Amino acid sequence: MSGSIWKKFLATTALAALVVLGGCSSGQGDAPANLQVQLSTNPTPSDEWHQAIELLDGISWFQVELLDEQGKPLDFLKAEVPAKSESVQIEFPVQRTGAYRIRSSAFNADGALLGTTSQAVQVKPGINQASVTTLDIGSLYYADNQRLTQTQSPAGLEKFLSFNQPGISLQGYCFFGYLGGEGEPRQAYFSLVQRMAKPIASARIPLIMVGTGVNNESLKRILLGGTIGLPYLGNSISIQQPWDFRLTQDNPPGSVTPQNTTRARIVSGTFGQPGARYELLSYNQDNENGLLETTVLVEDSMGFVSEGFGANAFMPNWLYPAQRKAVMENYGGSMEKYLRATQDPMTGQGSYYYSAPFLKVLTYSVKRDGMPIAEGTGGLLWMDVVYQTFEKSTDDIIADATWSFFIMQFPKQKKALMTTVVGTPLGDYPISSLFTHDAPKNPNGVLEPAYRWNMQDIRVTPLTDKIWTSPRSKLKYHTEFKIDLDGEYPTHLHVKMAWDEQEAKVEDRFVYEGLGNVTGTLNGEPVEGTAWLEMQPIGNL
User: Is the pTM of this model over 0.85?
Assistant: First the structure.
């Protein structure tokens, strides 16, 4: 899950258990065959309104995968689209007849994903033909190979993460942590920029959510300014290259500023790699009708890490009962071992999730109504980049999802930790990973976790005598927690909010997230550092 307020929007779809090609797939025989796939270059979009709009870009090439009946990848082809062509054709040699699936993804000239279509095919001896004439919302899935553009190189990752990806439902970037040098009062700070397709009734509506918030022990409340609303209706949103995400919103007459502006951009280096510098700017009317103005410059000392699994950092958001049973009974509670062994695609059950755990704050300035709240050098932020796809088939699973989310940074040890528990009607799903500078790297430059805990070894326990009641919402929140992580890397931590009053109202709901402190031991080594928490009210998790 992401460490920002958008995490209530989780990705979804269904899945079945995997059977390898040489196994007992229904109706398969040893006769060789060929499968010819005809791909329309002007496909009919699904009933997603945003898809119909964005497809005006046109399709430049297709990525087509042959899968077994349950979704395991078997073969891969890329098809360029010649100018003015109405269709393109690719052909797979198939060694055994039987049931398969085709997964075809369409991309525009920038390499941005426009959508994905997955369909079943029955292969018989000889020549077989299949047609792909529709284009659905983009599918996200586990992949343990380097076939996807973003998995092959740092340049491919930068391009994927910094272009608009219209086929994907949610594309978000979130920064959070503290501003302030050694011995200075700390300012809790977060900034998020994202666009999404929000499910409303039977449609999905394009939505933008952009905001910057600050808080400190003197304010004891979150000042939050930004935009939530439909793009193109009084709002302007853009992503340019190199990565530069900008949004403006016209304010009604009488506002403290005629226009809100939020911007996040890379100013030097390669997006996602060590040494990259990012600038975060906001000039917004805040939630108390003041003018909140922030400028933050950070430098990445670690680079991106993979919060998920496989080459594409796919992070599951929940497990179906059969999956949970297999993970616990056959793989010792290890999602990593389960996915590697089964190649379960878990299509739509999660997100592509990258983080930058160590963003050193070089300079910062926070002003309200032109008066300084804080400015100087020093501080530490964490960045999350999350792509998610929503599908109607499992909206009920995520409708009442809950979560507790902790990120923890230990600068002296150059280590960072993320622990989260996601709750759905199918049960709780705990995740915890340790990140270090010297962990193995993928071909795209992303660091793998130095250690992942098995599901049964993760325990997050709120201290029941440490409760804060919000005077505004009347909701109650735990403010201190124990995190116990057992197994081969035993870790025991105590997390405490830096101050209690860290609740904000966003649209019609309250969120509680902010700055904390953490002490304890990592594999027996004493540690202390800072934490960022996002919590649900007591009784909601």
Answer: yes
